[in-house]
């Protein structure tokens, strides 16, 4: 029972970057684990601009045995950024959801969680640095972490097929906020199958929602059409210290884009892109001595009103070294392949280097 429950939340836990968790309470069917990380991060781009991006995360996950077949669970995760002066540092709640597990019938939870589209998007979001940013955006429908998510999951097809995971998700409307993070109500689903004793997982996801009612400064609706949708396919191999992953996705009326100084007046153009085509590839190998080099490629092409251009296109080369399961250092180099002219519109075309040191538990 508990192993199946942990499988439900393992994707969120891995995304949090937790190498381990400290059990702080376990008695009478109630269990609470604490996890966290502190990362010192320093970024340099090709214009020699330097910035600090240090942050800390803390979270817990808990479960309670209600009956022999029923388990309640919850998870919360918080991030505090440390790059600004004291009193002016940003903070945010990344995850906050609770639910119930009904044996082989599956689990149901509600709150701030990962969208089911990220079930597949997570495959290639495993680089040393960078990655997972072709179309996946926080608070953008069900492509990343978001609010108002009601999620049903079964990790083994209701106890009938080991390795066959199914998820169905409903998202409530989130309007009256910044246009980039607004969405209408929608539904999404994901299907994954891990081939036994192979290390291979195949997956697909789809989501469809009403487009956001957000308007521009002139009162016109920003999103075109009535529906925003996304579909994605992915595959990964994770065995024998080797990790390989590939995903492809397309979005419609869903991905936000801002073009700086797009008009002669110097004002910005904002839009939910008509269509994006997105590809992410990666490979990594974990040596016994703790070294883990990775290589990845990410691209995203946006089509909107006659404008068709790569808005994300880069190669990432990185290496990490794990002193043990709790402490690591890493460095990642982003080789940007975008047209330099796009920097005039606020789209980053610089190369970038990231150095990091992390303590996690």
UniProtKB/TrEMBL annotation:
Q: Which InterPro entries match?
A: Gram-neg_bact_OMP, Gram_neg_porin_domain, Porin_dom_sf, Porin_gammaproteobac, Porin_Gram-ve
Keywords associated with the record: Cell outer membrane, Ion transport, Membrane, Porin, Signal, Transmembrane, Transmembrane beta strand, Transport
- Major subcellular location class: membrane
Instruction: Write down the membrane topology.
Output: Multi-pass membrane protein
Q: Name one Pfam family in it.
A: Porin_1
Q: Where in the cell is it found?
A: Cell outer membrane
Source domain of life: Bacteria
Q: Which residues form the signal peptide?
A: 1-21
Coiled-coil regions in this chain? none
Name the family the entry cites: Belongs to the Gram-negative porin family.
Q: What is this protein called?
A: Porin
Lineage of the organism: Bacteria, Pseudomonadati, Pseudomonadota, Gammaproteobacteria, Enterobacterales
């Amino acid at each position: 029972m508990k192993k199946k429950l942990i499988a439900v939340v393992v994707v969120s836990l891995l995304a949090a970057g937790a190498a381990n968790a400290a059990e702080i309470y376990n008695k009478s069917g109630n269990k609470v684990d604490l996890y966290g990380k502190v990362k010192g991060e320093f970024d340099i781009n090709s214009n020699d601009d330097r910035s600090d991006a240090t942050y800390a995360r803390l979270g817990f996950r808990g479960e309670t045995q209600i009956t022999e077949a029923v388990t309640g669970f919850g998870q919360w995760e918080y991030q505090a950024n440390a790059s600004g002066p004291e009193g002016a540092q940003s903070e945010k709640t990344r995850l906050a959801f609770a639910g119930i597990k009904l044996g082989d019938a599956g689990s149901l939870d509600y709150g701030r969680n990962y969208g089911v589209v990220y079930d597949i998007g997570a495959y290639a979001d495993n680089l040393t640095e960078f990655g997972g940013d072709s179309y996946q955006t926080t608070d953008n429908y069900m492509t990343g972490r978001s609010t108002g998510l009601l999620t049903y999951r079964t990790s083994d097809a209701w106890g009938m097929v080991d390795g066959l995971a199914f998820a169905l998700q409903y998202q409530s409307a989130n309007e009256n906020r910044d246009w980039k993070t607004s969405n209408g109500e929608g539904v999404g689903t994901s299907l994954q199958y891990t081939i036994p004793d192979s290390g291979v997982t195949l997956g697909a996801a789809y989501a469809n929602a009403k487009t956001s009612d957000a308007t521009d400064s002139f009162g016109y609706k920003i999103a075109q059409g009535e529906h925003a949708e996304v579909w994605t396919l992915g595959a990964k191999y994770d065995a024998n210290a080797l990790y390989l992953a590939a995903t492809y996705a397309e979005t419609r009326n869903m991905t936000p884009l801002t073009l700086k100084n797009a008009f002669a007046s110097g004002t910005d153009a904002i839009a939910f892109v008509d269509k994006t085509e997105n590809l992410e590839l990666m490979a990594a190998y974990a040596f016994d001595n703790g070294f883990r080099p990775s290589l990845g490629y990410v691209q995203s092409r946006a089509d909107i009103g006659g404008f068709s251009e790569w808005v994300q296109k880069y190669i990432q080369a990185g290496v990490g070294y794990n002193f043990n399961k709790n402490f690591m250092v890493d460095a990642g180099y982003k080789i940007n392949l975008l047209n330099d002219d796009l920097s005039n519109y606020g789209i980053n075309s610089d190369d970038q280097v990231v150095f990091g040191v992390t303590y996690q538990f």
